[in-house]
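For concreteness, we quote verbatim a single protein encoded this way:
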Amino acid sequence: MTTPFGSYELTRFPEDPRDRLRAWDAADEYLLRHLDSGTGERGPVDLASAGRITVLGDRWGALTTALAAYHPTQITDSSLTRSATAANLDRAGIGTSKSTVTLLTTQDPPPERIDVLLVRVPKSLALLEDQLHRIAPHVHAGTVVVGTGMVKEIHTSTLRLFEKVLGPTKTSLAEKKARLIFCTPGTPGATRPTAPGPWPLTYTVDEDGGSGAGLTVVNHAGIFCADRLDVGTRFFLQNIPTNTAGARVVDLGCGNGVVGTAVAVADPDAEVVFTDESYQAVASARATYEANVRAARTPAEFHVGDGVAMLAPGSVDLVLCNPPFHSHQATTDATALRMFAQSRKALRPGGELWVVANRHMGYHTHLRRLFGNSEVAASEPKFVVLRAVKRHERTQPM
């Protein structure tokens, strides 16, 4: 990525030479060009003396890496973004010492004072709403606020949200299908919220929710289908094995944790592990678990990270997975395939991977290649539940 601040070799995380998706796009480039132009909505912006810079929602660390000389604070919901940022900074010879860049998560308190706020608009409007509410008390009338995103990511509702939470908002002209958002907090006419945001949301799974029926579900902002059980998870809960007999069970890509919590409620002796790359998701899973499971049972594990990479090989009996097929705005099966390969490594011989997915994804082919077997445990016109068994140890195909 070539910018006014330098040229950088950037990758996503985990790094895969076969991945054709870039770690930056035209929206990142547009924002960096704007910052270098020296003109903001209220006159020149001198980053060197602008004060404390916060970068919210950076996708893979492109903005944070390019602006590292100005000691920004990055706030992200993604542990993969956090790892990518650290790797990209190291590759640029910058590192992540406290004297350069501060890496925070969406579950951490924001910086006490924010003088420049740069926002990469996320796919989830709810996550943006939650984070703007959390950040609003830390900006001031002189804070420079600039958002960026591709044209297809910035809607009227996006602009209204900036205006509702921070202040008057307008957009730039489009360049290379990207657009900037300019917001002026604290000016006359600005309506700053006096109440906290609406998150988290809570609902109860209805009687058609299979093994999840009656559970209380807690969703922090940014979790898919926050106010009800989505149809894929509902179908999964209607078909997952419930007689786990004290097994070590992983809710992989746990989201709000309703699947793993259903296992914990059905089998008090099960050792349940929740893992997701989203800090918001793992916080939701923990809250869902605590809302439904008595404290006296075997404690659950909660991990934020890359799938089950943090678990020891051969340490798991059952993996339950509802894999994503999007990475931000891009459609890809790379995340799901990585989850499947990691699951095989983590499973004991005889252990099982259960997957729910849209039928058209064709995951049965990949499971047969990895496990040597795959069977349909349940199906309907849109979704399918697949089961693969780890028969023995063997070299995994590349």
